[in-house]
Amino acid sequence: MSMISLPAGARRGFLAGLTRNLAQLLSALLLALAATASDPLRGAAADPLTFAVIGDIPYDEEEFPLLRRQIAELDAPVAFLLHVGDIKRSTVPFREDDYRRVGEELRRSKVPVFITPGDNEYNDAQDPALAWSYWKKHFGDLPAPWPDAPPYRRQAERPENVAFVHRGVLFVMVNLVGGRLQSRQEWTDRMADDARWVQDAFARDGAAVRAAVVVGHAHPVGLRQPFADVFLPVAAKFAKPVLYLHGDGHRWIKNRPFAAAPNVLRVQVDQGGIAPPVRVTVAESGADGELFEFDRRLTEEYDARRAAYDARAKAQRAGKAAAPVSPPAKQPGK
User: Fold this and answer.
1) Spatial contact of 89 and 326, defined as CB atoms under 8 Å apart
2) Torsion (CA) 141, 145, 147, 152 in degrees, nearest 10
3) Is residue 281 within 8 Å of 48, Cβ to Cβ?
């Protein structure tokens, strides 16, 4: 079988066209590989993801070195740390230096740190506006100091509210605190902003992820019910595993309290002075759709801290202790 002979000019044109086509194909392949590497909804979307969660620390001077040690112990496979709020006790003076010191401790972390506000550091202050200015100054840029932080978005109306997708998991953080009602208008506006942020995040990314984690400081009941009235229907419609993480109550709780959204698992983390950061892994898949795994890493040291905490609290309630102690666990909705 003989080859078709082409004139020299036609041959050159054919080869030039073939070269262009190959170059375009190679360019398309490179762009696809780049998108897979940079887009958290592609490529490794189903890979297991591990992150750490801490809250309600430091409550006194003794807990500063403990927090430093807990931060130093964060390493692979932890991708980032979530602090669920309360970086001080509400009963001590609101000094900017306390905010600065905690901010410096968090910035020591080898992994990126995201934080949501607690009531102790602004809502329950005598001057909430001044306390909030301290929080924004010393925590409002997190996790910007870490160049390897997952790409994230901030709510325009409420920049402390953050959302991002990492390895196929949607994270939504909202300013949902416990404590007292300082201003009904401020509280109402904040509940509406939080609810809208959750709605927007699930509408934007929900279809492309395998699970979601919503983070606030407090349990969404009682004064926070207006947020739950929006969040729970959104979560139920999502119809995939959702983890709601919070602190405020100081003791570990893991349950499914929302009849309207049985796919929502609620976890209240321990107060940081009596337990290390819990490590949460979002698995590729799990029995009955249960993707969330928890490693509390409790040791004899923390058992002793918990026992001492309980003893001091009991003595204080009996009027026999002069030293302050972290407040007892708050009841849901209080």
Assistant:
1) yes
2) -20
3) yes
**What's the pLDDT at 32?**
42
The whole-angstrom separation of Cα 19 and Cα 7 is: 18
Show the tokens assigned to 31: 């762009």
Mean pLDDT estimate for the chain: 85
Distance CA 16, CA 44 (A): 38
Please report, for the chain, how many H helices and E strands are present, in that order.
Answer: 7, 12
Could you report the per-residue pLDDT of 279-333, keeping only the tens digit for each? Answer: 999 998 765 568 999 999 989 999 999 998 888 878 888 875 555 555 544 444 4
Q: What is the mean pLDDT of residues 105-120?
A: 96
Could you give the CA distance from residue 98 to residue 119 in angstroms, rounded to a whole number? 15
- The strands making up 162-166's β-sheet, listed across from edge to edge, are 152-154, 162-166, 169-173, 211-215, 242-246, 264-268, 253-255
- Is the separation of the CB atoms in 168 and 46 below 8 Å? yes
Residue 13: how many CB atoms within 10 A of its CB?
12
Indicate the pLDDT class of residue 85, thresholds 50, 70 and 90: very high
Model confidence pLDDT, tens digit, residues 180-205? 888 999 999 999 999 999 999 999 99
* Alpha helix positions (H), 39-110: 63-72, 96-106
pLDDT at residue 42, rounded to an integer: 36
Return the half-sphere exposure (C-beta side, CA atoms, 13 A cut-off) of residue 22. Answer: 6
Strand partners, 75: none
Q: Domain 49-301 falls in which CATH fold?
A: Purple Acid Phosphatase; chain A, domain 2 (3.60.21)
Q: Are strands 292-295 and 278-282 parallel, antiparallel or unpaired?
A: antiparallel
